[in-house]
Amino acid sequence: MAGSRTRLDRFLSQQLGISRKATRPLLAAGRVWLDGEPVSDRQRVVTPFSRVNVDGRLLQQRERRYLMLNKPAGVVSATRDDRHPTVMDLLDEPAADLHLPGRLDYHTTGLLLLTNDGDWSRRLSDPREGVSKRYRVWLEKPLTQADVQMFADGIHFPYENITTRPAQLQITAECEALVVLCEGRYHQIKRMFGRCGNRVVGLERLAIGGLWLDPQLARGESRALTAQEVQAVFEPSE
User: For residue 155, what are the CA distances in angstroms to 87, 136, 186, 197, 204?
Assistant: First the structure.
């Protein structure tokens, strides 16, 4: 996962195969450029996405990548799997540097994100951010207002001895609902309905924060996020 940072002199030493002491004359002579400007401070931070040149020679240039994918059922949310196709197999572009900031179960469909930006991923999973996830759920049995209240109160999982954070459950049809969570425990929605005595027969993720699945994307299709969409994941869903 991309996310490591290093001092400029250490980066130059590793890339050029010289000692850190030997990087000082390069910096003092203005021969090192960082993100489009000459630098002399050896303690400047180089990120995985910094552009670094020495004497016009490009040492690093890496663009941030953010994709949304409409995950179909029967595909694993992983970069590699020995038994099943993965979401990486669905992409029409190089995926070696991409990872998944959050996953969906094998049978679950809908919005899945891929990126090479580790800082963005960590922020997405940080509980302090409170990033919500919105799902459409189909159930085996009719839903009740008692279910709505259980979700709002939080549901206890005895095995881990934890209680889920309050979640929104909106009944949209007899056996269909919208669910909004601000956490993502293992099989959480299926387990929550299991505690309500019901079984999930279909599950689709519709949104993460304020970012909604593009309705123009067919199952298995993906596209790059816009700059606005990259930030929208940290905004409330509507």
Answer: 31, 19, 14, 12, 21
Architecture in CATH for domain 6-60? Roll (3.10)
Tens-place pLDDT, residues 165-185: 999 999 999 999 999 999 888
Q: Which is catalytic among the residues 35, 81, 89, 105?
A: 105
Residue 172 near residue 229, CB atoms below 8 Å: no
- Choosing among 3.40.50.2300, 3.30.479.10, 3.30.2350.10, 3.30.310.170, the CATH entry for 66-232 is 3.30.2350.10
**Residue 126 annotated among the catalytic residues of the structure:** no
Q: What is the pTM of this model?
A: 0.84
CB 73 within 8 A of CB 106: yes
Q: Which residues pair with 204 in a beta bridge?
A: 109, 136
